[in-house]
Amino acid sequence: MMNSKAPSRPLWLPVLLVAAALAYRVAKLKFGMSDVIPNFGPWMALAFAGSMLMPRALAWWVWPVLFVCCDLIIGTGQIAEVWTVYACYAVAALAGGRLRNRSSVLLTLGGTALGSFMFYIVTSTQAWFVSPFYAKTLAGWSLALTVGNPAYPPAWIFGMNALVSDLGFALLLVVAYNGEALVRRLGTLPVIRREALLSA
Questions:
Q1: Cα–Cα dist 128/149, whole Å
Q2: Tens digits of per-residue pLDDT, 45-88?
């Protein structure tokens, strides 16, 4: 019988994932790897799935603060320009933290996918709003969501890459969570948590 709450877990996995995410971020921004696979990264998965699956000792706000601090240390110089990015991560992390006791495989992956989609809509809308390239019309907004600026890869490619990477990293978190649970003989993450659906 599964426990209704996530089992108590050590902090070694979150620390390892944070270190890996920071190394990846540095490689992308400092060593020109951002063009290899545009918009491919673990951040939304860490924000939502990380907040949902990690120990309570790791508060939800750790992820958005980490993202901002990482960019400040690297020196991207874009903190003010991309504030909506950090806002999206903060909302996703808050949602993941609030759903921690109702976690399941489907909720983790579904919530991550929803966060990825909303991130795409919000950031594309911001680009449409601030860029002089786009007409401030419904057609201009549609252009920002699909084709984008011809100087860059199509916007939908960015969205698809983000969705694939977010789901991939979220699945990795689920596998790590259940793998540790099996080793420690704790309750694994169920595919779906029926009691959470009934109480929703």
A1: 10
A2: 888 988 888 766 567 787 778 777 777 776 655 655 678 888 89
Tokens 């916007």, located at residue: 155
pTM, two decimals, is 0.78
| The one-letter amino acid at 79 | I
* Identity of residue 184: R
Whether 1 maps to a domain, the answer reads no
Q: Is 2 within the bounds of a domain?
A: no
For residue 51, give both structure tokens: 């907040």
Is the pLDDT at 19 greater than 90? The verdict is: no
Residue 5 burial (CB count, 10 A): 12
Residues 6+ apart with CB under 8 A from 34: 28
Please, what's the b/e burial string for 125-137 (b: 16 or more CB within 10 A of its CB; e: otherwise)?
ebbbeeeeebeee
Domain presence at residue 94: yes
- Can you tell me the distance from the alpha carbon of 6 to that of 3, in angstroms, rounded to the nearest whole number? 7
Give me the number of domains the chain comprises: 1
- 193 phi, psi to nearest 5 deg: -105, 100
Tell me the two tokens of residue 75. 């020196």
Q: Is residue 153 part of a domain?
A: yes
Report CA-CA distances (Å) from 178 to 36, 109, 114, 172: 31, 14, 22, 10
95 vs 3, 41, 73, 85, CA distance in Å?
21, 20, 27, 16
Q: List the domain range (segments joined by +) for residue 168.
A: 12-199
